[in-house]
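Lab meeting, item 3. Inverse folding demo.
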């Protein structure tokens, strides 16, 4: 069990530790998704905690998705999860639309969350930009569905990258307001788990921008499906500054591109940034970049190879997702029924 999980479960008492996280099947997986999320999903799975990981297809359609591409991206994401080390026997792997309890609880949370809270969501502002009047209503209410994803399992811990922090704070606010309004202690106050050297992997072209699937420049990111030559080329061309590498972290201050490459190295090598700098301090980027490229290829190539192998058998992927959805619903259905009862919906359980 990771340290963060241990401390929290001791505090909570009432809720057994349970990990949930999700990724949108809305395009190629990139290094930010891998280091900021999937690799840490695997660590949590292997530390013996109950883990539930979801391909959030309902979130993906908050912006237009071509149906055939969405189907492919969902299966590819599942293949990426498994190729990275998630075991469908140990973790529950499924796609969100197949557990309708998420959307049902999402509606209840639409009635708990306040407009003022939602209006503060920076990711909506960034994504909508000047197009505010034309984007879908779903893009605006996206975070209430995310809160439902987490709380429908009474999840206590959510591993994510730094960009999801505000959504997780909203999830805590929704849980607290529900508990307060109905006079219950029903939903846990979930703990975000944002840790490690790569909680915010930056663009290879601009150290002030997050690595993202929506960046128009493919050279800005390493995709999980890039071949060895492409990875090496993108790293060779990655933006840096003229100085060499420092031996201590303080020497990375105000050097976003240098810091990003060192963080990536540390996360891929499972080392601390201090350890990496102790080894490479004093080197020029001309020497460090090939080392980084070699490490990235060594870590990512086996994953992309395994992903293509798994994608040969879509039937097997669909069976894994269906089994995951069944197991997810077995946890979610009683929690939804109890929620309806607390809210005052008349039904079989009331
Ligand atoms: P999404 O699909 O944008 O990203 C999936 C995960 O990858 C992380 N991530 C990064 N980490 C480090 N550096 C980066 N450059 C980087 N880019 C992406 C994200 O932080 C995330 O952990 N709203 C979520 C999906 C979601 C979810 C949930 C997550 C829906 N319901 C419930 C947790 C719990 C999203 O859009 O992630």
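The presenter then showed the designed sequence:
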């Amino acid at each position: 069990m990771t340290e963060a999980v241990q401390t929290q479960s001791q505090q909570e008492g009432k809720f057994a530790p349970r990990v949930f996280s999700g990724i949108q099947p809305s395009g190629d997986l990139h290094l930010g998704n891998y280091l900021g999320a999937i690799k840490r999903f695997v660590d949590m799975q292997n530390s013996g905690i109950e883990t539930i990981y979801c391909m959030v297809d309902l979130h993906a359609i908050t912006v237009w998705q071509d149906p055939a591409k969405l189907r492919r991206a969902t299966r590819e994401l599942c293949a990426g999860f498994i190729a990275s080390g998630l075991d469908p026997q140990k973790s529950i792997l499924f796609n969100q639309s197949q557990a309708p309890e998420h959307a049902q609880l999402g509606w209840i949370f639409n009635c708990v969350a306040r407009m003022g809270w939602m209006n503060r969501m920076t990711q909506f502002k960034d994504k909508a930009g000047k197009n505010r009047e034309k984007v879908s209503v779903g893009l605006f209410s996206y975070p209430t569905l995310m809160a439902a994803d987490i709380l429908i399992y009474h999840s206590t811990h959510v591993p994510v990258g730094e960009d999801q922090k505000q959504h997780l704070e909203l999830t805590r606010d929704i849980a607290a307001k529900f508990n307060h309004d109905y006079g219950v202690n029903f939903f846990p106050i979930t703990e975000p788990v944002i840790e490690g050297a790569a909680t915010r992997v930056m663009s290879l072209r601009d150290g002030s921008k997050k690595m993202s699937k929506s960046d128009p420049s493919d050279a800005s990111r390493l995709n999980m499906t890039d071949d060895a030559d492409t990875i090496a080329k993108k790293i060779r061309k990655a933006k840096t500054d003229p100085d060499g590498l420092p031996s201590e972290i303080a020497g990375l201050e105000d050097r976003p591109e240098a810091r990003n490459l060192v963080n990536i190295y540390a996360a891929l090598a499972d080392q601390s940034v201090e350890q990496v700098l102790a080894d490479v301090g004093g080197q020029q980027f001309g020497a460090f970049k090939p080392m980084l490229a070699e490490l990235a290829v060594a870590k990512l190539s086996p994953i992309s190879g395994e992903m293509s192998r798994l994608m040969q058998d879509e039937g097997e992927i669909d069976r894994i997702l269906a089994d995951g959805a069944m197991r997810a619903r077995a946890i979610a259905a009683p929690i939804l029924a109890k929620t309806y009862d607390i809210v005052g919906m008349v039904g079989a359980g009331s």
